């Protein structure tokens, strides 16, 4: 059970502690932040409201621990990560329980998130050993005007302290996708979990603690964004920020210092459907892509752009599947569960009301109880409706009818987002041309957008982000190149 057994030391009564220098502590603030269960809308957990002084201390400790960790053999770093991965998977049940209670993730998906995270950590350990063990060797006489008098040896060295800020929708998986690459590369970690999802993340951190990582290498502070958010992201002790979330990422990018940034922000992933598409396949992918975890995924299908000639058929097939979605509590593993907060539900409702007023066709009746919103397909959406452009992060999906592939591409590219997109057609040549024309980080052909498998490159353009993720790219992003140049007194070939 969450907060008990091996996890007992991370709580104190009804409050969860924060993690500093290998120990679980209560904040000197004496204050806590409540985590509201999206389903019951009652306080589920409380976490520490850490202070700026505590952030300063964490940074100091993380910096010192990193110096020693950088000197720890790569194979030993990998060994500890493998251990943490095994412990994480062993404790999937209590962590999944937190995900269900804090973010209303359906029960089975919650378990999947933890298992996927363990696999990600193991893969990162292996990939790190492979790629960080390699450097480059250059000779000078390949550049005009040079003799062979210089040998350049380059290797990859850590950046220092990595600040990891995951979002509410994957508080475990998108935390380890930052932690594991940072650690294998020799960096230390300061983790600031989202408030909603913090307790799941604290349990995950404890799995790393149980694996025996050195004290101070991994730290986790919780608290109010208004109190410690900017303080963390603008802290001079931070050498890299890896953030996943919404618009806040744009503000962080503007305020952060001269440090590498990895930002995964929003998306308005378009699904372009041509006349020759397999409509059963499309409908299945729209359901999976648009409605899984109630649409609260950055890679969710967020607008369907379907050729007018097949639109009626497609809408009918999707509607038949929407009717079968189970709506209710995450504990019962329902497909559609409460969205994360009341403000999120209100925002979604605002988009729905705007579309209604402007004449969209509602394929189902709009229904909401508290934070629970029933799945809704909106047909005949037009570009003057907010939902054509904005990201609902909820179970409501607009359909725009198009008369040419170019129209679909144009809509996709007019968005300020550029995360992923997808195209459905049996004509691979057309699919490739459309993929090339879509201004997004990834285009999926004949499948819904998705980040995984977790070693694939994952990136957004425009307001969707900076840098590329995926295990290999994240490791490479969390290192810098260090060169040593050996200078010879005369060209090496002078020796005969
Ligand atoms: O919400 C953002 C995630 O990166 C999406 O991940 O495609 O595995 O759901 P996913």
Automatic annotation (TrEMBL):
The active site is at 264. It comes from the Eukaryota. It is found in: Cytoplasm. Its EC number is 1.2.1.9. One of its GO terms (cellular component) is cytoplasm. CDD domains: ALDH_F11_NP-GAPDH (cd07082). Transmembrane segments: none annotated. The keyword Nucleus does not apply. This is NADP-dependent glyceraldehyde-3-phosphate dehydrogenase.
